[in-house]
Structure formats: structure tokens, C-alpha cells
Design goal:
mainly beta; UDP N-Acetylglucosamine Acyltransferase, domain 1; 8-stranded parallel beta sheet; 2 helices; about 5% helix; about 30% strand; globular
């Protein structure tokens, strides 16, 4: 199946829909993201609550009602929407868009990515070179891997044909309302369809269609516990 932007993302749930204008493939938005953020960022803290113990770089916009907790680091350039929670230990690097009502949690690192409104990356997540749709959610420890081990371009299988994305760094496209379980890994070039689930501890590669569930096939091996001598 060929995936277009509208197959994965409802553009009414982002203020940055123009980023996707005229695209053939959704991952092409990552190629223009840096220029888009540089052009549109306004370095303003707009009635947000920012702890003096947080670091906010010079090219960062923070929207109304957003709370930035102590220990957060926002290097930027970055555009952060309204009514978000940027928690202690969050690390927001260059070329990041965070939509309205998002949660970026403890020990979460974001780099060159887009979060649509209502997205949650709340605990120990890495998200690089990726797009997360409306109300997408990553469980604790879920990782979006963005570079292949051989450091070559990332390919996506479209209708049975491998397509060169032209990107050496490309993590995942995670559709609206999708859930990625705790400690799962999305390998480079993964596409998760709208409303789909990736179960915990799964290493996923490729395309998961909309409204599907990806599970681990292996059953746990349960054995009898043998008594052992214990020291007094």
C-alpha cells in the first residue's frame, strides 16, 4: 500500500499543516523540517510557566499555558504549542515541533521531529527524525531508532517495491491514535498505521497497517523452580 500524508495524519490536528503541502511521501516532510522551523519560530515565551531551573535556548517558542519543569533542556530551534507539559529531564534538541496539549516526559529526547496535538512521549523515550500523529502515545522506554547499523539510506517497501527515502536518518511515521508499548523498538523507516498497537518489548520493522496489532509470537518458558541449599 502506498502511504500518503492523509492515510496517517489528520492535518486539522496541527498548526503546521503547510509543512506537508505538496508531498508525495510523508517522510519528505523531514527533509524540509529544519528550514520550516527556522522560518517560523518566534523566540517568545507566551504566558507559559517556565522554571528558572530549566534551560531555554534563544530560538524557542513556548505557547500559552505550557509548563516547563525544572531540569528540562530545550536547545532549539523548537516550536512548542499551548498547554503542554515539558517535564524534568526532558531534552528537546534542534528542529522540533511539539503540538498543543502534548506531554514530553522525564529522560525523553526529541530531535528533528514533529508531534501532532495531544501526543504523549512521557517516559524514557528517544524520538529522532520522526512524525507522531494526533494522540499517538509511546509507552515507557519505547525507542524510535533513526539510523541503520550500516549508516546507509533508509528504504521503505511501498507496494512491494523498496523506495529509497533519500534519508540516512529516518525513524518512524506513527499514525493518529497509535500506541507503542513499553520498551518496544521501532527500527528505521517504520510506518505505524492509524489506531494500531505495537505490543511491549517488540522490535518492529516495516509497515503496520491501520487498526492492527503487532504482538510477540514467543511464549514464555515456565519451568519448575528447583530447591537450592541456602546459607544459614
Amino acid at each position: 500500500m502506498t502511504y500518503h500524508v492523509e492515510d496517517l495524519f489528520d492535518l486539522t490536528h496541527t498548526e503546521h499543516r503547510s509543512l506537508f503541502d505538496g508531498l508525495v511521501h510523508p517522510w519528505d516532510a523531514l527533509k524540509r523540517l529544519g528550514a520550516y522551523v527556522a522560518e517560523n519560530v518566534r523566540p517568545v515565551i507566551n504566558n507559559a510557566t517556565v522554571s528558572p531551573a530549566a534551560h531555554v535556548g534563544p530560538q524557542v517558542y513556548i505557547g500559552e499555558g505550557t509548563v516547563v519543569e525544572p531540569g528540562a533542556m530545550i536547545l532549539g530551534p523548537a516550536i512548542i504549542g499551548s498547554n503542554c507539559r515539558i517535564r524534568h529531564g526532558a531534552y528537546i534538541r534542534e528542529n522540533v515541533i511539539v503540538g498543543d496539549g502534548c506531554v514530553v516526559g522525564n529522560s525523553v529526547e526529541l530531535k528533528n521531529c514533529v508531534l501532532f496535538n495531544g501526543c504523549q512521549v512521557p517516559h524514557f523515550n528517544y524520538v529522532g527524525d520522526s512524525i507522531l500523529g494526533h494522540k499517538a502515545h509511546l509507552g515507557a522506554g519505547a525507542i524510535v531508532s533513526n539510523v541503520k547499523l550500516d549508516n546507509l539510506h533508509v528504504f521503505v517497501d511501498v507496494d512491494g517495491t523498496p523506495i529509497d527515502t533519500g534519508l540516512r536518518k529516518f525513524g518512524a511515521l506513527i499514525g493518529d491514535r497509535s500506541e507503542v508499548g513499553c520498551n518496544a523498538v521501532l527500527n528505521p523507516g517504520s510506518i505505524i498505521g492509524r489506531g494500531s498497537l505495537v505490543y511491549p518489548n517488540l522490535s518492529w520493522r516495516g509497515i503496520l497497517p491501520a487498526n492492527m496489532i503487532a504482538k510477540l509470537a514467543a511464549e514464555p518458558n515456565v519451568v519448575v523452580r528447583r530447591p537450592r541449599e541456602t546459607a544459614d
